[in-house]
Write a structure and sequence with these properties.
Layout lengths: L4 H6 L2 H13 L1 H25 L1 H5 L26 H6 L2 H9 L9 H21 L5 H26 L4 H28 L4 H7 L2 H12 L3 H11 L4 H19 L3 H5 L6 H21 L13 H20 L12 H19 L5 H29 L2 H37 L2
Helix pairs in contact: 3-8, 3-9, 3-11, 6-8, 6-19, 7-8, 7-10, 7-11, 8-19, 9-16, 9-18, 13-19, 15-17, 15-18, 15-19, 16-18, 17-18
Length: 429
């Protein structure tokens, strides 16, 4: 089976030798490109589900070229259910896996984890695209499969990244996850705008899990990466062996340590986790609680659902830009991100109630700014973790820190639903 990377390569020494030849010659390019593609494919299903949220809550099998059906009795053209419901289905399974995985996932080989990620990723696209729109529970199950896949993949690939050169793996991953948002949201908006139905568009995305498998196979093995790093160290062989043994023993000690030992690692991570939690709460409250209420009836984009899709494209474009900027711009003061993002909430809310933005272009600019803050906080937080946290506990620490943004997103989903209902009731007056 091609997904069984290690066994597949061991069965064919010719392919192994050939890969090692190219890995040795183009090692940085392989690591950066593989991690860029892994970031892209890991987050793609998650992004698609959020981009399609407005369609999933309506008749997601209908073609986008049909005449728009507006809620003429409501100023905001509200759906019966907030897109925060889709957000909850797209994040709660991820929270569950992120809470428990750091305590057992090290016992599972990486290639087996990747197989699980690929299978659940495929299932999400199939369930959402092929299920009739009246069977909402089954569609929500597909959204939940995307959540599980994305979160388990994030834990897997971020943990694996600690075994490679940080500037290669983290940089590639951060940029790739940003690209997932941009390519996914733009692809969905463009294809549906051209007349393809939402269901057919989602079904087309089945090439993503295949690309993930190929990207993982192309990634240099851990043994190859370790041998390359030690061969380049300016130390004698005895020191190298000592360093490697100590590193492996330290890694083993935390993976095999008690729950008490692992909980002791949490306090140093709070300075990263709290900003991540707050910035993602504010960000997704805006995206899933307020985006669908920012409706411009006289805009050049006439349909409400099209405006929602292109809001997501603008947001993801900004996330891609900020997550790809870590090589040039590094910000150590992480609290600045949630402070500015919370200000954005009040700006958007004030417009929704007072309706003072003269053009949809102002909303596009604010959404771009919002995306820059979210992506910037993410990439700077994990970059600082990879620098400040000792290497022997870094893999565990990254897995734990990734829980913070998920909790923020979940709280945003729970908050968005009653706020949506309250604002829509105001719009009926």
């Amino acid at each position: 089976m091609i997904l069984r990377k290690i066994k597949f390569l061991n069965k064919n020494n010719i392919n192994m030798n050939r890969l090692e030849h190219y890995w040795g010659k183009y090692y940085p390019q392989f690591v950066v490109t593989s991690y860029w593609l892994l970031g892209l494919t890991n987050n793609f299903a998650y992004v698609i589900m959020l981009s399609a949220a407005h369609d999933i809550l309506s008749d997601h099998n209908s073609n986008s070229t049909d005449l728009p059906k507006h809620n003429s009795t409501n100023r905001f053209d509200c759906n019966e259910l907030s897109t925060g419901a889709i957000l909850l289905a797209d994040i709660l399974p991820g929270i569950a896996i992120k809470l428990v995985a750091p305590f057992f996932v090290h016992k599972i080989k990486y290639w087996k984890r990747v197989v699980v990620v690929i299978l659940t990723n495929s299932a999400s696209f199939l369930l959402v695209s092929l299920t009739p729109s009246n069977l909402k529970p089954l569609i929500f199950l597909g959204v939940m499969a995307a959540s599980f896949s994305s979160s388990f993949g994030e834990i897997t690939f971020l943990s694996l990244s600690t075994l490679y050169i940080r500037t290669l793996s983290i940089t590639g991953w951060a940029s790739g996850t940003g690209a997932a948002g941009l390519i996914g949201s733009f692809g969905y908006a463009a294809l549906t705008s051209l007349g393809l139905s939402p269901s057919s568009t989602i079904l087309l995305m089945l090439f993503i899990p295949v690309l993930m498998a190929l990207s993982y196979i192309a990634l240099p093995t851990v043994d190859f990466a370790r041998s390359r790093i030690y061969s380049e160290l300016d130390t004698d062989s005895e020191e190298r062996d000592k360093d490697q043994t100590e590193s492996e023993n330290n890694a083993g000690s935390i993976n095999n340590g008690s729950l008490k030992d692992k909980f002791k690692l949490l306090p140093p991570l709070l300075k990263f986790m709290i900003p991540l939690f707050l910035v993602y709460f504010a960000e997704y409250f805006i995206n899933q609680g307020l985006f669908e209420l920012l409706y411009f009836k006289n805009s050049f984009i006439k349909e409400h659902k099209l405006q929602y899709r292109w809001y997501n494209v603008m947001y993801q474009l900004a996330v891609f830009v900020s997550r790809s900027s870590i090589k040039w711009i590094k910000i150590k003061f992480l609290p600045i991100f949630p402070i500015l993002q919370i200000i954005n909430i009040f700006v958007f809310l004030s417009h929704i109630y007072l309706d003072y933005f003269p053009s949809i272009w102002i909303v596009f600019l604010l959404i771009f700014w919002e995306g820059l803050l979210g992506g910037g906080c993410y990439v700077n937080a994990f970059n600082q973790i990879s620098i400040e946290i000792p290497k022997n506990v870094r893999e565990f620490s990254i897995a734990v820190a990734s829980i913070a943004d998920s909790f923020g997103i979940a709280l945003a989903g729970f908050t968005a639903i009653p706020v949506h209902n309250s604002i829509c009731s105001f719009g009926n007056k």
